[in-house]
Queue: 4 jobs
Job 1
Amino acid sequence: MKIVVLALGLFLVSSTAQAQWLHQSEDDAFENKTQHISMTMSGMYALGYVCQGNKSRFVYITPEKYSAELSQTMLVLNPKLLVRVDDADVVKLDVFSEEANNKTKLVTDDEGSVSLAKAVAVAKKRVSVAIEIGGQLFHKTNFGVTGSKEALNKALDGCKAQKSN
């Protein structure tokens, strides 16, 4: 839910010409850990990095209406989140789908999330994202990188500190 609220806030303050990365952290009273969220928007799409302790993931929210049938179909088809930072090679991450305010949210728990977050933090031009299902690309979007270094480094540093505790 926090991700959706942050995405809605970004939507109100961002434009498609220049997306702004934002960071938010929130303490978890039950696990004594802080969840860090760094997120940006482009049009009706949102991309975020979420970490808490040693768990990290990327989240991609699309405008596509969520349904249980879509989620089951995607699970069978083994979708991938494709991410290209600037002009670097494409990174492919395994994803599963969830509901986010009646929209489709794709989530990865891939170990590549931390290294990808570090690459996005130093991006100069853009972060391009798409979903690959059955060899076809869907929901291709470009995100700006303004503020990505500060927002992502706060999350990476915050979660790194939790790992050492």
Job 2
Amino acid sequence: MADAIEMPPALQDAVPRLKKFLQEHGWPEEVAFVGEEELIWAGDYFWVRLRKAAHENARESYDNARRRGLGVALNAVCTDSVSTYAHIYIPQDDRDRQEHMLAVNCLKLSVPLRRSHARSVRNPALWAALCLLHRRSHGYVTNFLR
């Protein structure tokens, strides 16, 4: 009888692991999940769009990644004085999984060697203006998260 391959833990079980990992690396333990579309690189810091639906979107993304069986990574991206902003990385296919050194059905936690700071935005009009001002930074954010 073949052994069943375990799935990564559910997000509610993975978050305490991430918090402990962050603490061990000197990052704030408070975690806010952000997607690529909620980050703007401004040259030496990130603008982060804070949205109420962010945690629910993160849970859905994480659950989809678990079902795919290719592994999932919780990556710290940037921080302000209170929170760590983390991104859920989901490999596109098996080759992508291997390039990111994810084992099948594993949970990978990471923080960058160089800490980037964050400035948060809640105002939709300000966010729209920042998107126009920094529209070239999207490619950088996409590459940074992959």
Job 3
Amino acid sequence: MIWGTSEYIAAIAAVISLAALLFTWYAYRSAQHTEMLKALQGERASIAFAAYSIGRGRAPRSKSRRQDLIRSLCLAALFESSDRSRALIYEALVKLAEHHGDEIWPIVDDLERLIGKIGVAAELDLRRGTERLAQLRRALGDKS
């Protein structure tokens, strides 16, 4: 069967509609990821809710997005003053560590090196940061 002009136009319209749908879905997922990262930098309640949501949901499939999320959770674990929020953050990180532990430890090690380097170079009192890193390591199951 040979297609006429109207069939080609219909096929092109269907392809354009499908492309628009896929683009919209991708933009929505990107916006969700960005909002989650922003929530981890916000107020206690938003940090706690974001950590709770991460702990109950799935990790992003994209390695770079997952690492962004892990980095944000680790930083929230260091800087969040609420014990309840930190408990939810630890829970989310423990859940992520079940399948992506190999991605978490380099980030924790990098933060530890950074805090050590800044503490020596700037003569800052970073004991609380060091203590929270140790708590984070214990929560993730590191025996050191």
Job 4
Amino acid sequence: MGEKELKTALQHEGEAHARGFWDQAEAAVEQRRKEIETELEHLRDETGSSLQAEETALRNNLLFEARTRAMGDKLHAESAMALRLLEMADKVLGEMIGDSRQKLWHALHRELPEYPWTNIKVHPKDLAFAKRTFPSTAIDCVEAIGGGLIATAAEGTIRVDNSLSCRLLRAWPDLLPDLMKDLREQVDSDAASRNDTTG
């Protein structure tokens, strides 16, 4: 084998080796590119899942906060409504007595125990009844007492409240749930009828 042939053979072998190395390098680069694409896809999926989880958590927190605030507002509104209903009931109760004031007076003052009362508080319309019933007792007129009386003795240490307002307060926990239920039904009915006419 001559020098020329040796050079040509070495050149061919070198080129084949170089092509082999080049093919291997290209294959390694292609393999790494695919690995990087796979890693990027996994990162996108993880990031998407993480963002979706964060979005869900944030939405749930906001919904919980909104529901909590709405519940607080509802409780506050219902509490204010209950107080307003009590005030209205107390006022209406006094107005409902009408011609029965004398009968009511007799029934309520008879429930008082026998005692040397020092002060009697009554509604102004019951003043004449109180003067006849308790002639030697100080009598004060209080407009807020719709009917009945409040009797005190022994410098205020003994007090009996037998007024309609006091009786209403005692009955109020039993009356309020039904009143609120009726009120809610009326509000829901009104809202439904408004939606029917506007929708």
